[in-house]
Amino acid sequence: MAHDVAPVVGPVSAEQRERWHDLFAAYRSLAGLTPDPAVLDEVWSWICAPQAPIRCLVATVGTDLVGLAHVRVFPRPVTGTTGLWLDDLYVDPAARGRGVARALVERVRTLAAEEGHDVVRWTTRETNTGARRLYDDVAAPADVVVYNATPLRRQD
Questions:
Q1: In terms of CB atoms within 10 Å, which end of the chain has fewer, N or C?
Q2: Does this model's pTM top 0.70?
Q3: Residue whose C-alpha is closest to residue 120's, from 98, 135, 99, 100
């Protein structure tokens, strides 16, 4: 992989499925998730659906696919607008430090502007200091706390 070649970001193609699979599996492992081909197949089916609920942008350097970003539109009832949610952002460790993550984030921000969304939003772990250096440079932290609750099952 050439060190002086700028990353190019665009939509993932069917021919890139295998490399996307490898990158997404590596991303999931960082979250402590075990390999699960069914999850990878399901997410790929979402990406490829005609009215895809989620889109995948990929970064290439030369001919090497080195990063991915999954994004989806979300409604913002309080403002009557929409935003883009950046669900997943991952760069191959061998390509880090070369502007790949920045190129992906900038493309997501440009896409949001082109489509008329008023915000790009994402979360990251407090301990993700490498990514947070970039995020602090391109965005402001939100003044909200995120909670996760387990769905309650109805008891009949």
A1: C
A2: yes
A3: 135
